[in-house]
């Protein structure tokens, strides 16, 4: 396997690893295993490897181990990508963003152990984890785009094949097609912010256990008198979901007008609609299953993929940098 493709392979492996790490973290929270190693970090019940094992200890210990392994793997990818493709602004930004938020995620995890996971901290941890995941996903996407564009230059004779295996200066290549209509850029980024706020509200609902108070879906059958403040939080969470569906349908309308030039945006927008509908159904499954662990993991898995897809669209509507650093090999 050529080094070029091995880097892409490691980047994809990092994406899979980050997804598993986040899923393990969600399982850790859902099963109340965050204190399975006691209120100690990085030690587990007073030692590197605990002497006594229980289900909660296994879940927490495995989660911590996965975090360490995947973090090291991504650091290799980030450094290698920066060294190889650092002239691309996107690589520098995404590598720095992902590394920064991975360490911030680890810090919040440690604080959660020390302070018994208060709901605001848990919700923040969830949001930070998704940003870290998005950074890893988008860096893998950009690495793939750069390599495909360079291979096209080699195929058309504009670049010698040997240039792919070093840091030699290469012609500047656009990574994204030109955007015919700038209006969709605003609405994609607006949806990114909207979804992030909606996710925080949902994470807060989960962290406080408020979801267990409700049985009606798609509309709650409970009243404010029964649930109090949590009723308002639940209504806000469901309203955000409806608003997200409307926003993604609007993105489909905008992308439909430019579908001939940008099929990536058109199909990406439709993917968002499908994922939002799947997320709504998984929310119903959460209620019908009395907040089962399986339903919870499905719910957070879909939202992770949804946020990653929206991040991809945000990347694809972003303008190409006017200048890039050129290295001489």
Report on this structure.
With 329 residues, the protein is mostly helical. Helices cover 71% and strands 0% of the residues. The longest helix has 37 residues, at 119-155. It is flat, with a radius of gyration of 22 Å. The two termini are 23 Å apart. The relative contact order is 0.11.
Secondary structure layout:
Elements: H1 3-30, H2 55-85, H3 89-114, H4 119-155, H5 183-208, H6 224-227, H7 229-257, H8 263-288, H9 293-317
* Domain tally: 2
Main β sheet profile: none
User: Judging from the principal axes of the Cα atoms, what is the shape?
Assistant: flat
The helix content is over 70%
Summed over residues and divided by their number, the pLDDT gives a mean of 82
> Alpha-carbon distance between the termini?
23 Å
Order of helices and strands: HHHHHHHHH
Radius of gyration: 22 Å
Structural class: mainly alpha
Instruction: Work out the number of β strands.
Output: 0
How much of the sequence lies in strands comes to under 5%
Number of helices: 9
């Amino acid at each position: 396997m050529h080094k070029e493709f091995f880097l892409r392979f490691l980047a994809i492996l990092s994406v899979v690893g980050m997804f598993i790490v986040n899923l393990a973290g969600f399982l850790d929270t859902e099963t109340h295993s965050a204190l399975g190693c006691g209120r100690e970090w990085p030690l587990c019940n007073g030692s590197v490897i605990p002497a006594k094992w229980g289900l909660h200890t296994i879940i927490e210990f495995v989660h911590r181990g996965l975090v360490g392994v995947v973090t090291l793997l991504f650091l290799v990818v980030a450094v290698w990508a920066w060294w190889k493709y650092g002239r691309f602004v996107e690589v520098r930004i995404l590598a720095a963003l992902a590394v920064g938020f991975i360490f911030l995620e680890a810090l919040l995890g440690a604080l959660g152990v020390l302070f018994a996971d208060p709901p605001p901290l848990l919700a923040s941890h969830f949001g930070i984890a998704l940003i870290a995941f998005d950074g890893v996903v988008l860096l893998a996407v950009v690495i793939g785009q750069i390599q495909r564009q360079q291979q096209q230059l080699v195929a058309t004779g504009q670049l010698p094949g040997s240039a792919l295996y070093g840091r030699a200066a290469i012609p500047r290549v656009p990574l994204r097609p030109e955007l015919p209509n700038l209006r969709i850029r605003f609405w994609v980024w607006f949806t990114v912010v909207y979804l992030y706020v909606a996710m925080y509200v949902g994470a807060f609902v989960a962290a406080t256990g408020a979801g267990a108070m409700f049985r009606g879906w798609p509309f709650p059958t409970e009243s404010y008198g029964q649930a109090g403040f949590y009723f308002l939080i639940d209504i806000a969470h469901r309203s955000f979901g409806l608003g997200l569906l409307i926003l993604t349908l609007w993105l489909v309308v905008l992308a439909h007008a430019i579908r001939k030039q940008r099929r990536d945006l058109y199909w990406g927008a439709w993917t968002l609609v499908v994922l939002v509908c799947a997320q709504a159904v998984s929310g119903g499954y959460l209620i019908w299953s009395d907040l089962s662990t399986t339903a919870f993991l499905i719910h957070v898995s879909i939202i992770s993929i949804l946020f990653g897809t929206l991040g991809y669209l945000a990347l694809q509507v972003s303008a190409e940098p006017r200048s890039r650093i050129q290295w001489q090999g």
